[in-house]
Amino acid sequence: MADFLLVHGSCHGAWCWRDLIPELAALGHGARAIDMPSHGEDRTPVADVTLDSCRDAILAASTPETVVVGHSWGGYPISAAAEAAPDAMRGLIYLCAYVPISGLSIAQMRKRAARQPLVGAIRKAPDGLSYTVDPEQAPALFYHDCPAEAVAYAMPRLCPQAIGPQDTPLHLTERYARVPRAYIRTTDDRTVPPEYQAEMSRGFPSDALYEIDSSHSPFFSHPQRLARLLAQTERQF
């Protein structure tokens, strides 16, 4: 059975995998979720968060048998981890996540999309070090198909996202290319456009591409279905 390491996206934390972890356990898999620096229970000051520190948090939690799952922005630090130590994980699964183009930051990647759903919802902190998502718009952007209880659980837990690591370009080499990869596209996503997810994953093997009819948060909207899909995906590694 697989050992899954779950890496959250912007403004979230390990808490967002609440419903998925028991579903993976019910299928016989191990699953662990970590907080990226300055998120959840991690108390790193926003000013001190870097792409490297996010990468290192993943490497500290990974083993050569671990399947690392990155959600949304999490696609960047999991890629950085694979570049730094390709033998430290069994494979990568991108869940409606950004797949880096070498030399670009995630901020630059976002601008390449034909549609920008988050424009108008981002609230930059006065010091310029972080941003939040307008709480009036976040439910429709992140959780439109999720149970009301899950939305009520998530909203007060959303936190500022450090801008520094998202402005940092990531350079990838053949080291990253050695790591097996798969992509799960969310076809009803209102945060990362589904067509842009398809574009970013175009270079993946055809048998490493999967879909789930979900919002940006399938861990809340369809946790059982997502667990089964992850279990199916990891078998190819």
Walk me through the structure.
This protein has 237 residues and is α/β, with parallel strands linked by helices. The chain has one domain (3-234): Alpha/Beta hydrolase fold, catalytic domain (Rossmann fold). The protein is 31% helix and 17% strand. It is built from 10 helices and 9 strands. The chain has helices at residues 20-26, 51-61, 75-84, 106-112, 138-142, 148-154, 174-177, 194-200, 218-221, 223-234, and strands spanning 3-7, 30-34, 66-71, 91-95, 122-124, 130-133, 161-162, 181-186, 209-212. A hairpin with a 5-residue loop joins strand 5 and strand 6 (130-133). The protein is globular. The two termini are 12 Å apart. The model has no long low-confidence stretch (mean pLDDT 98).
Q: Label the CATH architecture.
A: 3-Layer(aba) Sandwich
- Write down the overall mean pLDDT: 98
Q: How many domain regions?
A: 1
CATH-derived topology = Rossmann fold
Record field, number of beta strands: 9
Biggest beta sheet attributes: 6 strands, parallel
Separation, N- and C-terminal Cα atoms: 12 Å
Structural class: alpha/beta
Strand numbers in spatial order across the main sheet: 2-1-3-4-8-9
Task: State the order of secondary-structure elements, H for helix, E for strand.
Answer: EHEHEHEHEEHHEHEHEHH
Helix content: 25-40%
Low-confidence stretches: none
Question: Rg, please?
Answer: 16 Å
**CATH homologous superfamily identity:** Alpha/Beta hydrolase fold, catalytic domain
CATH top level label: Alpha Beta
Overall 3D form: globular
Count of alpha and pi helical runs:
10
Pfam families: Abhydrolase_6
Domain AB hydrolase-1: 4-228
GO molecular function, one term: hydrolase activity
Organism: Ruegeria sediminis
